[in-house]
Amino acid sequence: MGFRCWLLVITFVLSMGFHCELAGAPGRRQLLLQSLEPPDDGVCTAVVSPQGYECQEYEVKTQDGYILTMHRIPQGRGGGSAGKRQPVLLQHGVLMDGMTWRLLNPPQQSLAFVLADNGFDVWITHGRGTRWSRRHESLDTSNPAYWAWSWDELASFDLPATVGFVFRKTGQKLHYVGHSMGTLTALSAFSEGKLVDKIKSAALLTPVAYLTYMTTPMGRAAGSAFSGEMLGALGVGEFDPKGAVGTNYLEFVCAMPG
């Protein structure tokens, strides 16, 4: 691994440790947590309905106690149609939430809206720990135990919970669209024979199952340096790429020559 990659990883870990100290200061923790809270009007009122679509919000509880938010666009702007509309579940990738499906864009540029306008019943997930799914039956996000999970839990708990909910709600097998980590969790579940009886088709966008052929310098550096374990040792459970630490780190990386 090149010296520059190691330098980036070390700088990242040190910055997270410094951030951890700042977050514990009076008032600072409250400010950080407030910055992650969704606006009061939510996705349906603020984003989907203004585009002319009906929008519904649901809460789904996983077997390990996480409470996930799902948003449903049951029909297109033209209203209902004869017969049942086939359900489609959209699962986002890592460091993202359901907004990744371009809900702020014009309808013709958003997969969710395009599907709804073409006769599908669209369901949008927001994975645990993301902006819209930060609740748990007994833990809050300030507790390190809240963050004690990996993609294994997403495949074992989150995906079965959301797929099962849509299946029961609609009474139909569903089409699955996953992006990046959304493909990894699906492949993990499908390879063990889970959920296949509830899935009609699966479209995997930028699929990933192994990291053997990863060529990104930062990705290889982070993996080789065991950055996840290092951050855990510092007591850092959450990395918010849109927060102060994430944006400062990216600005530092982009400012480096070469």
UniProtKB/TrEMBL annotation:
Keyword Hydrolase included in the entry's annotation: yes
Example of a GO biological process term: lipid catabolic process
Annotated ranges, domain Partial AB-hydrolase lipase: 47-101
Coiled coil: none
InterPro entries: AB_hydrolase_fold, AB_hydrolase_lipase
Cross-referenced Pfam families: Abhydro_lipase
GO MF, one annotated term: hydrolase activity
SUPFAM superfamilies: alpha/beta-Hydrolases
Entry keyword set: Glycoprotein, Hydrolase, Lipid degradation, Lipid metabolism, Signal
Signal peptide annotation: 1-17
Entry-linked PANTHER family: LYSOSOMAL ACID LIPASE-RELATED
Protein name: (wild Malaysian banana) hypothetical protein
The species this protein was found in: Musa acuminata subsp. malaccensis
